[in-house]
Model the fold of this input.
Amino acid sequence: MRWWSACILLTGLGACATAPAPPPERLEADPFYAKAVSARGIAILASARVRNEALLAARDMLRGIFAHRPELAQWLARHDYRVAIMAVEKILGPAAGGLVAICAILKASGTCGGWIFVTGETTRWSAAAGYLPRWLATPDARDIPVRALMVMGVVMTVAVFATAAPSIGEQFETLINAVVVFTVLIYVYACWAVIRFTARSSLAIRLTARTVALLGAAFSILLIVTSGAMLMTITAALALATVPAWWFVKRSAIGPRAIHVIGPS
Done:
């Protein structure tokens, strides 16, 4: 029997689902494991000290991970792979639970702070350069781009509700796939830019640039096409919206210019 051991340190996750049951006899599990649930046929075991919410959260995570790869889940279940959840106190001692919680809070706070900084400054300077409406570049009396942050907050809220799924794992998968596809779309634009920027270069440079750009664009488009119907549709809609916008910015009076952030009067 082979084990797929995963020590998942979960502290206080809530879930609304059926309570775990003792491991089935067919698993021949060690008596140490007093609880078990199943995710797409894969057994998830835990000791009595692990909270039910943590066990159910792990089950939902696995369901989301294998949502689009059921054949992989079937293979793991058929070959008796299992997931074992250990209480953090069992691994690192009684004081470890609080330490893990503190680290999780610090990590979440740092991620949120980084997102706010990058989003606010990117939107602010893009607006100051003329690529976005100028009013987004106007900071408040504390030099904080409140308008940019509010707009991005609304956009992200819409994205969260638009990608709602039965489990967090499935929603995360949708969001991360969308991020990858949109990033690849930027690569396609970059490939086109390479061709334009080398238009007046020597013949050798032009041929090299076009070859690299076409190969890069072909690979990027292949990734987008194989990402699924929904993401491909969203990507096409985004491309149809951004390409005309680029021509408008390029040919209008609000095009790129020397960057000067509008400060408070």
